[in-house]
Amino acid sequence: MTSKSVLLAAIVSIAAGTGTAALAQDIDTAIAPAVQMVNEKYAEHNLDIKKLFSQKCSWCHQGYGMRQADGPKLGGTDKSHEQVAKQIANGKSPMPGFKKQLKEYEIQALADYIKALPAN
Ligand code: HEC
Question: Residue 79 to residues 57, 83, 84, 111, 114: CA-CA distances in angstroms?
């Protein structure tokens, strides 16, 4: 192991030992109904909404949309489904637009998911 990876391992084990795991579990519980609803609705596409969200959105929207980070918390947004879908497609600086990387059903599924998230 290099000294860098030792340091990283130490940070990871500290984080795991201080309630981060419990918090992640709370988030999993909070988002579970939204995840299930969207995955069932888009079953014909074999959609995995958590995977899609973590690949495209999680670097700015933490906790699968339940925690504020570089981007705002998404659960409980004031925006309508249509406004949410539009923002995902076109972006709004500094958020990039995703219409070139995502299929239309993926944008709709992300909007369904966000609107199904609890506010807390
Ligand atoms: C580079 C960082 C970044 C990425 C990646 C990103 N966002 Fe955002 N997002 C932001 C920022 C910053 C805002 C706030 C912009 C504003 O409205 O002023 C935002 C706002 C939003 C809003 C509006 C929330 C509201 O209530 O106004 C939605 C919905 C949203 N993002 C969804 C997504 C989704 C879905 C993805 C993945 C496909 C994504 N974002 C990826 C940074 C990002």
Answer: 17, 6, 6, 10, 10
Q: Is 67 helix (H, G, I), strand (E, B) or coil?
A: strand
What does the pLDDT look like over 5-14, one tens digit per residue? 666 665 555 5
Q: Given the CA of residue 70, which atom of ligand 1 is nearest to it?
A: 12
38-73 pLDDT, tens digit per residue, is: 999 999 999 999 999 999 999 999 999 999 999 999
With residues binned 3-state (H G I as helix, E B as strand, rest as coil), the percentages for the chain, rounded to 5, are 60, 5, 35
| Assigned token pair, 2 | 């290099």
Separation of 37 CA from ligand 1 center, angstroms?
22
For ligand 1, the distance from its centroid to the CA atom of residue 23, given in whole angstroms, is 22
Give the number of the atom of ligand 1 that is nearest the alpha carbon of residue 79: 26
**Measured in angstroms, how far is the CA atom of residue 49 from the centroid of ligand 1?**
16
